[in-house]
Write a structure and sequence with these properties.
Structural class of chain A: alpha+beta
Helix content of chain B: over 70%
Number of helices of chain B: 3
Distance between the termini of chain B: 43 Å
Number of domains of chain B: 1
Structural class of chain B: mainly alpha
Shape of chain B: elongated
Oligomer: heterodimer
Number of strands of chain B: 0
Number of strands of chain A: 5
Largest sheet of chain A: 3 strands, antiparallel
Order of helices and strands of chain B: HHH
Largest interface: A-B, 14 and 18 residues
Strand content of chain B: under 5%
Chain lengths: 144, 114
Amino acid sequence: MSTVVTVDSLVSLGRIRSSKPTIFTERIHVTEKTQAEEVLAVLDDEYSQAILKRTRGKAMSAKELSEACGISLSTIYRRADRLVNCGLLAERRVVGSDGTHYSMYETRLDELTLSLTEDGFEVGIIERQTGDLADRFTEMWEGL
Amino acid sequence: MWILQVGAAQSQADYLLLLSASLIAVGLAAFIVYHAFRGYKRNSSRRMLFLASGLSLIMIIPITLSIGVNTLGQVIPLQPRVYTFHLPIVIRVSEIVGLCCILFSLLIKPERQN
């Protein structure tokens, strides 16, 4: 159940905003203020692109990503951190069966627009909805 | 409201139509309850547990009961009082308990995990 795509947020003045405040800090980390340059820089990277492509509509752990893309685990973590900070990637902490915590990553980026205005470059991001239906349902009900 | 009464005059077509409508309703309810329950399991959220229980008591149990009793009524003759009193009262009680569950779910403090 991870194919719902909605227009979530539009961005102004080179900053990316997430329209949805997250209730659980462990679920998705969003940095409110990110510059357009950082988004463009991170998208220029082939490893970042590979991560975004692989996790489109499908949450994957860093280990799975490393195996699927043939990229070292430390590179995956570095790129994933940058992507999460830009709001392009969703990170969700899950507890494994042995009690250890690890992160699952899923692409948030659906569409990106770049426009040149008097203030400089503006980056607009349209997000896809990420996460499991059950988790979104919980988030909604817990938020009441 | 979920009672399927199958009188002698009621045609088989009516019964089948009601049965399929009830099955659709119970299927949709089961889908929502399933996700509420998964939300409880994945996030250990007590609110979701009570929401799932409440929805089951309001939707799934009454419909299942009315389908069950009416199907049973097709096989063995039941007293009219079963349809006019016993079944409705059990359904209403289930609905009341279910609504209380949902109300309770709204009143308890959400558990936030950090």
